[in-house]
Amino acid sequence: MKRTRREFIKLSAATGGALAFGTRSATLLAEKSVKPLGILILGGTGFTGPYQVRYALSRGHKVTTFNRGKTHPGELPNEVEQLVGDRNGQLDALKNRQWDVVIDNPTTLPKWVRDTAQILKGNVAHYVFISTISVYGEVKTGPDENAPTEKYEGDDPYKETLEAMKAGGYKTYGPLKALSEREADKWFPGKTLIIRPGLIVGPRDQTDRFTYWPVRIDRGGEVLAPGSPDDPVQFIDARDLAEWTIRMVENRETGIYNATGPAKALGIGGMLDGIKPALKSDATFTWVTEDFLTQQKVEAWSDMPVWTGKESGVARAKIDHALSEGLTFRPLAETARDTLAWFKSLPQDRQSKMRAGLTPDREAEVLTVWHSKKT
Known about the structure:
Distance between the termini: 34 Å
Shape: globular
Low-confidence stretches: 1-30
Helix content: 25-40%
């Protein structure tokens, strides 16, 4: 089923993939001596969580994870303490325990924060909530951390379920995340760090957002490129996000931070031109106008991943605050190569069913119509 740009951007907490990790997150050691911390990671086995785990271990921290034990069991290193439970009422494993910090990765529902906080309050000194830039909604200008967040208009946010949110087309995703942020700050005032990532990309991303482009460019030939080369794009490698989160934890940082990239403005043309040489591809790009794509019912974000169109402010989020606190980015070429290598490690039936972007037949059809109109 085709997803709209709104629906796709809501899926930033993608499920994990194959047992492949970039080597950098597992081997980049501390540049200075850091005090070992006891870190509780809620989740930890999906997309960014395993990168957090391995980077934290590489810097000498003691890591505990809490999850249902159903996603990639046996994947994490043996030195990780793994607690089994469920945010929907099965929290006993967290009782009578203490940690220096908790990193809350998977939460969408305010009640998950509330119920967990009731147990952890007084037992952790620092609460890190991984949120999303979707809290800003469908903005037309690039938001900074002081921009208004979406308002929840339902009856009772504490009675919301993931099933209801999905059934409603993810329209409540941003508002519920914003409420969850406030819930965390209510229970841990002055001790809360809120990180709002943009599009998270790289190895392990099962949504194929961004992945579509390395795969398509690697295939070569004529590639349909959307809109104008200058249309802005933003994204962050999951490994960069995970590593920066751990460093922020080490520094006991609090407050709100947009976390996406790159450091300097990038257009969709720059992104495609950066991926092509990294993969030694012979691809050529045919730029097709946004108006024509709309006429052909080719949608930004879902059919043309990463690209949000020229009018959207989603790809213009301001990240000065995070840059000032050491957010860094690996080269686009590295992300592209690693993402493609990971994707090619997946079973063949998975590779044949990309979850974002145009199918080869549909892309060829649109290009044929475009060329016929140009002649």
